[in-house]
Amino acid sequence: MDVRHQILSLTALSSLNADALLLVVAGDSLDTKLDPKLAAPIDDAIAQGDFVLKASRTLYLHRQPGVRAGRVVLAAASGTSPKAFKSAVASGLAALKHTGAKHVGVAAAGIELDASHAEALVAAALDATYVYRHTKPSAPPAAALATVTLVTDKVHAKMAQLGITRGLAIGAGVTLAREWANRPANHCTPTLLAEQAKKLAKSHQDVKVEVLDRKAIEKVGMGSFLAVSQGSEEAPRFIVLRYQGAAKTKAPIVLVGKGVTFDTGGISIKPAAEMDEMKFDMGGAASVLGTFLAVAELKPKVNLVGLIPACENMPDGRSLKPGDVVTSLSGQTIEVLNTDAEGRLLLCDALTYAERFKPAAVVDIATLTGACVIALGNHRSGLFTADETLASELQDAGQAGLDPCWRMPLDEEYDEGLKSNFADMANVGPRAGGAITAAMFLRRFTAKYRWAHLDIAGTAWKSGAAKGGTGRPVPLLTHFVLSQAS
Length: 486
Ligand code: BES
Ligand code: MN
Ligand code: ZN
Prior knowledge:
nine-stranded mixed beta sheet; binds zinc ion
């Protein structure tokens, strides 16, 4: 996708050289001074009641006399925020979906466009054109759209370009994360994930990758991670990514992504219905890869480490069994009461491994609990942290990237549920508050640094007709990393 900006007055919009003009209109009336060749038909459509200024409404006008763009689409926005702008752009692009429009010019009446609007525009355009093809090469293109031009005035041109650049980098990361989440488990193994990480390092010189195989993982002593992987024929991988954008002495941010390429539940097997969706259980890992891509493109002055424990969770003669006690890398023992609570068993070892980087902060990202989906639905990711600064930085990053999260509690009382008679802790607590006890479990491995946990079980993918990865929370994570730059 080619996205650019063009300085042009709204009073000269009819001269815009594009296949289609998408005009986003905010407010209850059209009071911006517009090119008369456009204002006349729009005023008429509003007077006739054919275009109501209500969010998500659009109107298509074909070949307006004197207007260079052969197609004009009006899209109403609920307000002037980047979020409102993004959803109006998405409606407008949907109205153009089945036209031949390759080059769309986007302008806004009643909105002062800044960098966040430009970034939102790029996200909407990439979202409208992404098509999964890896195992369905016959899939038709989503739209003809290939070029987007954002119309700005002179004052906002620089900000617009900044937002476009950031939007394209984040968009590339989102697309990478979506793509890998969408690939079925037989096309997205731990080995293939590691190869993708290596590819990333090959194309970006600031990124280095190291991949640990089963032997190396054993040598490190990640007994808990290995216990999950032992029921699978598919070899586990522990992927370590490093991006250096600041002095070596600067403490890095560490991102830890759950990389369960398929989660059957293991011996505590899941029901058959919708089990296919457990191919998305590496969404946290995909978001780490996507964030690395975005960061490597934007080159902020930070140091970043990515840790991805990747394996399958399968039932087998060699599988981990309920009641088994495993020893984590931290030395703490864990009684595995439910083999389907496997994510935390991988993550705890990765969190201990993170200590060796003397991190400024560690954020883990995981499709960890169904309970988080019940609590927050599909709009906000669950955020767990005891660190107030980290909490507000991550909340702000989610806001800025239109990829929001919601803070959940970590009170000591929730830890009670993890007591075990046979180990230092059990891997599950009571059903109630399941997202929180999962976070409390992870917390036991994070005493040595500032830590936050993002439960993305509800936000990493969509179910139903539009089933597929969302690429979240790459926008949140990238904004967070950018905010840590010196
Ligand atoms: N990958 C799942 C979490 C999940 C479930 C994500 C449904 C999205 C939708 C995780 O490994 C899991 O199975 N968690 C269990 C934990 C339970 C056994 C304590 C769950 O949420 O049911
Ligand atoms: Mn599970
Ligand atoms: Zn899982």
